[in-house]
Design brief:
By secondary structure, the chain is α/β, with parallel strands linked by helices. It has five helices and ten strands, in the order E-E-E-H-E-H-E-H-E-E-E-E-H-E-H. The strands form two sheets. A five-stranded mixed sheet has the order 3-2-1-4-5, sandwiched between helices. It has a five-stranded mixed sheet with strand order 8-7-6-9-10. Helix 2 links the parallel strand 4 and strand 5. The longest helix is centred in the middle third of the chain and has 18 residues. The protein is globular. The termini are far apart. The relative contact order is 0.20. Belongs to the KAE1 / TsaD family. TsaB subfamily. This is tRNA threonylcarbamoyladenosine biosynthesis protein TsaB. It comes from Shewanella cutis.
């Protein structure tokens, strides 16, 4: 997998789906923890952060930025991830960068499975899916169009159907008929959830593009309009 420049130290966190993950890039190495642990994210994430820091033998003071899973995904999971990011970044005055959970899955498919076109779908419950379409541009997952929440039958492909398309995410488990879109989509069972490891590469690209923000500007993405983000008590 493509990794950030050696001089950059990035911590990545994600709890937006059933999986919980943390990854650290430091001095040319990636240290990572991942668990499929629904309903245990609030208990698992901080120990994972401590584990990757311990593996790298580094403290939080060495971090240059924190990348966080911004969604879409579980409302509770997104809140946990953004709250943890806010808590860590606030005391250290670190910049943060939100990474799409759909883009993280696409990046994993591109980097580890040589995918060129990826349709990522997360089961959104209520008969809907969160979905996004991505192509590999210089090895980086690049969004085609917008990320959307809709009924499965409303999903419209904008990818090149004359070239291979892989599908990943829990949306395909919930709605197997998604594989029959267009000329058919090849399932990639190895990429079911976002992974903080893939977020590191996307974070570096975003950092170079100046997309980091202060922790006060941290912005989760729910796609549905029924949830609003509330900062931790004491924050304006």
């Amino acid at each position: 997998m493509t990794t950030p420049q050696d001089s950059v130290c990035i911590l990545a966190l994600d709890t937006c789906t059933e999986a919980c993950s943390a990854a650290l890039y430091y001095q040319g190495q990636v240290f990572a923890e991942l668990a499929d642990a629904p309903r245990e994210h609030s208990q698992r994430l901080l120990p994972m952060v401590e584990a990757v820091l311990k593996q790298a033998n580094v403290g939080l003071d060495k971090l240059d930025a924190i990348a966080y899973g911004r969604g879409p995904g579980s409302f509770t999971g997104i809140r946990i991830c953004t709250s943890m990011t806010q808590g860590l970044a606030l005391g250290l005055d670190l910049p943060v960068i939100g990474i799409s959970t759909l883009a993280a899955m696409a990046q994993m498919a591109i980097a580890e499975h040589a995918a060129e076109q990826v349709l990522c779908c997360i089961d959104a419950r209520m008969g809907e899916v969160y979905w996004g379409q991505f192509v590999a541009v210089d090895g980086i997952a690049t969004l085609v169009g917008q990320e959307v929440v809709s009924a499965p039958e409303q999903l419209q492909l904008a990818l090149d159907m004359n070239k291979p398309i892989v599908g990943c995410g829990t949306g395909f488990d919930a709605y197997p008929n998604l594989f029959s879109l267009g000329k058919g989509i090849t399932p990639l069972a190895e990429v079911k959830y976002p992974d903080a490891r893939a977020m590191l590469t996307l974070a570096e690209v975003g950092i170079k593009a100046g997309l980091t923000t202060s922790v006060d500007e941290l912005e989760p993405v729910y796609l549905r309009d029924t949830v609003t983000w509330k900062k931790l008590p004491g924050r304006e």
